[in-house]
Structure to design on (496 residues):
């Protein structure tokens, strides 16, 4: 133990002698760790939030498709689906998209059935219950500068201006779900988009036994071949895929950071500086054996890697969970005008943290020790003369 | 002060900061799961929502789980962006420069 402490002391003093280089390595290494960890933390937190929040999505969504495109579905389909054994409830869903030329933003309109409950969680104000009333997400309220009681003007499908009184604004804590929503009564939504009589956007189906969801989906498909049933597990799988490390943007960032780390490790592995070689030669000449030198280099690498890893990890935690990942959000945002600020619940996967530590610290330490071993087994006189 | 002592102090400070962050994160998760999550789930149930409101630039991005079969998400579920430039170009400015206020005439609804 004492020998290790003495060698560590020497390793740290040697790092201090090369403080410029050591600091550069710590900065580059910590930055790489921070980028990798930020991507992993953000994607894991989003995926976990999605999976936790979306447990209440309908068991089955039945869409109608014509020529491979989504089409409004006749509400009569609901009656036939309701008669299928195992189906508890079928509810028509009315929703759609609206491009607001004023703010160049896309809103999502959702229609509310009349029997909607009056008191809502995460809503400031009240839900729209009458004609020309609406509740909006925090993003819509922000870009249109709306407060409770204001009027939201929009152009309907007949190119006529419509005014909706804002009766409610969804709280920012529900932003991940409601940021771009404009909620109004189903009648208002149908008339705004000029829906044909008896047509709705799609149908949501609740099934008594969750084991039978796939079976019911098959029966719906058989009954109405022009429909596309989407099960809850498919929705969950979509989010797993979108936020997994394989997804396009995350993969790009991940591999860029990994490539930067590989270059750093490769630079270390391909050789020592002449000063480092000279130091190894002198240590050998004064009586250090090869094992001591390898231990010295191991502690040098370990000290740098541990400091870098911890600084990088801390930076990633603060970046993602304290500041809402502003650097990554700029990349993820794309063309979205309405983009919710990431105030994510800090779900941290310790397995990911340990994998990240294993994949970065160990290769770096190895890349420090291997070239030193090559120099340490060479004759000290040859090393110093070279 | 020896270098070992400085190094161990530095490691301890960093470990405490990370440990403290993990502790804070656990408290946040616990708080969110007991307070916020039931409210969010209730919101999903009442509005019959299926997707998160993250990307609003295209319908397949707004509702990735509901997109048509021909949209990029269905062909390649990992694609967060259909147009690669979308991740690189800055979005158009959306701040309003003027605000038009419409008031109802006294004594009428409109």
């Amino acid at each position: 133990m004492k020998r290790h402490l003495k060698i560590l002391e020497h390793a740290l003093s040697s790092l201090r002698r090369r403080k410029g280089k050591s600091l550069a390595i710590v900065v580059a290494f910590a930055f790489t760790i921070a980028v990798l960890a930020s991507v992993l933390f953000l994607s894991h937190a989003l995926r976990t939030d999605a999976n936790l929040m979306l447990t209440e999505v309908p068991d089955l969504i039945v869409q109608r498709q014509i020529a491979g495109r989504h089409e409004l579905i006749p509400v009569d389909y609901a009656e036939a689906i309701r008669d299928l054994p195992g189906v508890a409830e079928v509810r028509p869903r009315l929703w759609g998209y609206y491009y607001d030329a004023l703010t160049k933003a896309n809103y999502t309109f959702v229609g509310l059935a009349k029997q909607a409950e009056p008191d809502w969680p995460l809503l400031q104000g009240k839900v729209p219950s009458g004609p020309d009333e609406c509740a909006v997400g925090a993003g819509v309220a922000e870009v249109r500068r709306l407060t409770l009681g204001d009027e939201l003007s929009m152009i309907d499908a007949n190119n006529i201006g419509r005014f909706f009184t804002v009766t409610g604004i969804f709280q920012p804590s529900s932003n991940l779900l409601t940021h771009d929503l404009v909620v109004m009564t189903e009648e208002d939504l149908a008339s705004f988009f000029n829906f044909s009589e008896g047509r709705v956007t799609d149908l949501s189906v609740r099934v008594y036994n969750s084991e039978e969801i796939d079976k019911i989906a098959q029966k719906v498909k058989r009954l109405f071949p022009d429909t596309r049933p989407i099960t809850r597990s498919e929705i969950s799988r979509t989010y797993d895929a979108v936020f997994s490390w394989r997804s396009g943007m995350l993969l790009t960032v991940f591999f860029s950071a990994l490539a930067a780390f590989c270059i750093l490790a490769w630079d270390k592995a391909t050789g020592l500086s002449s000063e480092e070689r000279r130091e190894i030669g002198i240590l050998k000449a004064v009586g250090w054996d090869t094992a001591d030198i390898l231990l010295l280099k191991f502690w040098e690498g370990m000290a740098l890697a541990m400091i870098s890893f911890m600084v990088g990890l801390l930076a990633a935690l603060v970046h993602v969970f304290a500041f809402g990942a502003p650097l990554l959000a700029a990349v993820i945002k794309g063309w979205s005008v309405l983009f919710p600020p990431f105030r994510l619940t800090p779900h941290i996967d310790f397995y990911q943290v340990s994998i990240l530590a294993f994949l970065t610290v160990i290769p770096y330490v190895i890349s420090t020790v291997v070239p030193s071993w090559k120099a340490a087994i060479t004759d000290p006189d040859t090393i110093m003369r070279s | 002060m020896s270098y070992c002592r400085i190094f161990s102090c530095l490691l301890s400070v960093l470990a405490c900061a990370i440990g403290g962050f993990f502790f804070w994160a656990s408290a946040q998760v616990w708080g969110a799961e007991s307070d916020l999550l039931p409210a969010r789930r209730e919101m999903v149930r009442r509005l019959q929502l299926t997707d998160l409101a993250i990307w609003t630039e295209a319908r397949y991005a707004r509702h990735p789980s509901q997109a048509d079969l021909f949209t990029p998400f269905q062909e390649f579920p990992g694609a967060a962006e259909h147009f690669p430039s979308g991740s690189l170009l800055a979005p158009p400015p959306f701040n309003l420069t003027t605000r038009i206020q419409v008031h109802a005439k006294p004594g009428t609804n409109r």
Summary: The mean pLDDT of chain A is 85. Residues 181 and 364 of chain A are 48 Å apart (CA to CA). Chain A is about 55% helix and 20% strand. Chain A touches chain B through 100 residues (CB under 8 Å).
